[in-house]
Amino acid sequence: MCKEATGSHGQIIGSLSYFSQINQSTFWSNLPHSEGYDYNRVLREIASRADSAISTVYDDLQKRRIL
Questions:
Q1: What are the average pLDDT values for consecutive 10-residue runs of the chain, which has 67 residues?
Q2: Considering the entire predicted model, what is its pTM?
């Protein structure tokens, strides 16, 4: 019996719902915008969140020994 590996969000690693959850929780939630559009600040925030998303995927794969 094959059991699919799940990530820290409870989704099957690599599935659409897995990446949708990561995107929702890291990239698009609460982007700072109260002070207008400071594109440099927004891009730095997105880069930071991208790093966090990549770390989440990597950690999930390492925990399941897929890599």
A1: 75 84 66 61 82 91 76
A2: 0.56
Q: 62 is written with which tokens?
A: 């390492």
CB 8 within 8 A of CB 60: yes
Token digits for 60? 């999930």
Amino acid identity for residue 60 in this structure = D
- Helices 16-26 and 39-63, axial angle in degrees (round to 10): 140
Residues in the chain: 67
CA-CA distance, 48 to 61, in Å (whole number)?
Answer: 20
What are residue 66's phi and psi, to 5 degrees? -85, -30
Amino acid at 59: D
- Sequence-ordered alpha helix ranges (H) in 12-38: 16-26
